[in-house]
Amino acid sequence: MEQLVLSAPGRAEWTEVPAPGLAGGADALVRPIAVATCDLDTAINAGAFPLPLPYALGHEFVAEVVEVSAGVTSVRTGDRVAVPFQINCGDCAFCRRGLTQSCTTVPRGSAYGLGVIGLGDWGGAVADLIRVPYADAMLLPLPSGVDPAAVASLDNLPDGWRTVAPYLDDLDDKRVLVVGGISIGLYAVAVARALGADVTYVDGHPRRTEDAAILGASVVAPGAGKVGRFPVTVSTSGTREGLLLALDSTEPGGVCTDTGVFIGDVALPLGQLYTTGIRFVTGRVAARHELPSVLDLVASGRLDPGVVTATTAAWSDAPAAWSTHRDKLVLIR
Ligand SMILES: [Zn+2]
Ligand SMILES: [Zn+2]
């Protein structure tokens, strides 16, 4: 079968690889029908993140079930399913605690379409077939009426979700600051707005600020100075400056989440964090754990992540579309 591979920054091409088969009693084979570029893919494609190449592309995707092993009971051939990018068994001590990003049944960090970061040969989703182990734990039927392309970004969308959703219920003062950059910040805006928060969004990128405004955020240009104090703050900028702005703008007792993948050590103002009692959250998203809540909110009609995935391309145009993308892209079969 054909699989899309990034052989150099800005050069995605089809390669011929053996099709996967069912390898165990808990497996499913699925056919991806909508694949989104992750913010990390976009950085790698631009040569801005040092991932060894080539790697098989695609880890954010919705698929159709093609075949299941005898032991699989929760999905059937023909079902449309959300597929978490992280491989998780659902049954180890970490999975049972909801830490599906740290499943210990597979090498920690195992994921589709992330090359050496994804540990092991799980394949990339821009292909005709993907093998899903632990299918009953991994796969989630897509609620009816949910557009596969709108929710295909099944890494960045739950990543945005976890920065705000766990904290808003307990607050009367639902105000959120998002220091943007890449798509996770826009998903954080969309989720916070869907859950009734007032959102301030800091970014200078023309398309993203337009999207944030469409989603109902108040947009502030970077460098405008203090933006106030918020009980919930988020930095998706991937920069120390953005992170410090978010921390500086967090109320005492508030929570600040950073989704950046920093390489090396980054100094933090620990004295300030101590005296203000700010909770600082970072780390990889537990995608499978968050997916039911995210999809329920989309199915309810309150959350429409589609504004972030407005750029689409046909499957047959995948090499050119992926090679030239600079912003969130969804390939549709
Ligand atoms: Zn990703
Ligand atoms: Zn596990």
Summarize this, please?
The chain is an alpha/beta fold. It contains eleven helices and 16 strands.
The ordered H/E elements are: EEEHEEEHEHEHHEHEHEEHEHEHEHE
How would you describe the shape?
A: globular
**Bound molecule types:** zinc ion
The chain-level mean pLDDT equals 96
Task: Please render the helix and strand layout as text.
Layout: E1 2-8, E2 11-16, E3 28-36, H1 39-45, E4 55-56, E5 60-68, E6 80-83, H2 93-96, E7 130-132, H3 135-138, E8 140-141, H4 148-151, H5 156-168, E9 175-179, H6 182-194, E10 198-202, H7 206-214, E11 218-220, E12 230-235, H8 240-248, E13 250-258, H9 270-276, E14 279-281, H10 287-299, E15 312-314, H11 318-324, E16 330-332
Residues 88-89, 91-92, 94-95, 103-105 line the site of one zinc ion.
Task: Please describe what this structure looks like.
With 333 residues, the protein is an alpha/beta fold. 27% of the residues lie in helices and 24% in strands. It contains eleven helices and 16 strands. The protein has helices spanning 39-45, 93-96, 135-138, 148-151, 156-168, 182-194, 206-214, 240-248, 270-276, 287-299, 318-324; strands at 2-8, 11-16, 28-36, 55-56, 60-68, 80-83, 130-132, 140-141, 175-179, 198-202, 218-220, 230-235, 250-258, 279-281, 312-314, 330-332. The strands form three sheets. Strands 3, 5, 6, 7, 8, 15 and 16 form a seven-stranded mixed beta sheet that branches. Strands 11-10-9-12-13-14 form a six-stranded parallel beta sheet, sandwiched between helices. The structure holds zinc ion (ZN) (2 copies). One zinc ion binds at residues 88-89, 91-92, 94-95, 103-105.
